[in-house]
Predict the 3D structure of the following.
Amino acid sequence: MILVTGAAGKTGLAVIRKLKENGDPVRGLIHQETYRDTVQAAGADEILLGDLLNPEDIKRAMEGIRAVYHIPPNVHPREVEIGEIAISTALEKGVEHFVYHSVLHPQIEAMPHHWLKLRVEERLIASGLSFTILQPTAYMQNITSQLQRIKERGIYQVPYPPETNLCLVDLLDVAQVAAIALADTTHDGAVYQLVGTGLTSQNEVAALISKLLGQEIRADQISLDDWKEQVAKTGLGSYQISALVKMFLHYQAHGFSGSPRMLSWLLGRQPISLEECLQREIMRLKLV
């Protein structure tokens, strides 16, 4: 059986669906009972409620587990401690393979939540566990989740200049690689960048959405002060807000680049393009 931590998030759900397509038994670890039905609908055979910072919960979650796909909470100030608990418990329970969901370029200290992932990678490499580290770039789903609002407003809003260049990846491709890494022991010791596109500006994203929706969409920068005010109302914590602002500033100054060649090799095909992802979601949402 495979344990997926962070099972209720968009990454966890996508990985569970792909594993179930492959016929793998899955146990999902969730932090809130309200997510149980969603994770069950994704295909989890077992669902446990637990806290990633509680060693006893993690011991219970890893009982009888062959492999772990460890997804830490998004932008968490205690990610290193969470990682240490997961790694030490995997060793104690005899887990055969540990796949860590990291991030592209964790070595960039200017982005604190990236830097913490590097510290977890360091501990995993030194642990003696059989491991694979996946480093995805920003998800295309960060864009597609806004499509309804983009269509209504005619604006694709981002917290950095529209000229900012980023590389992207479709979450479905990430989930497929996760399933590959969990099934194939030849990926032991590997660290893989998961990048689906070359550098793409936010103006180019808006132009592509315009083409697919058949209406004019323009990219527009929201000020960081306005962005912080908006997200604070959603309950996002001060650490998360501060870390994300630093990420946006890094994007603005340097962009965020990577190569799709590794992902192409892992998939045995070209990664899903941004146009394909947008078209799929526009059709699913019936926006045209």
Remarks:
- The radius of gyration is 19 Å.
- Residues 18 and 175 are 6 Å apart (CA to CA).
